[in-house]
Amino acid sequence: MSLIDDFRSAGASGVIGTECPVPELFAELYAITLLKRVFRGEPLGQAMLTVRRELNSSLL
User: Residues 6 or more apart from 33 whose CB is under 8 A from it?
Assistant: First the structure.
């Protein structure tokens, strides 16, 4: 059983995930911040980089 296989079966063209465990509260903050940018029309790659840098600098 695989979550990725479930997404494929549902017709998803892509999946964004992590390579390591991430605390749920951080994942939620990242996802909300990322999706706000994407829904405003920012390209996904740029939005991911910007959010990563913003959260990194705010957590230091």
Answer: 51, 54, 55
pLDDT in tens, 16-60: 888 889 999 999 999 999 999 999 999 999 999 999 999 999 876
| Number of other CB atoms surrounding residue 25 within 10 Å | 8
pTM of the model: 0.77
Concatenate the DSSP letters of all residues of 1-60 into one string.
--HHHHHHHTT-S-----SS---HHHHHHHHHHHHHHHHTT--HHHHHHHHHHHHHHHH-
Distance CA 32, CA 37 (A): 9
Query: Tokens 């980089």 correspond to what residue?
Result: 49
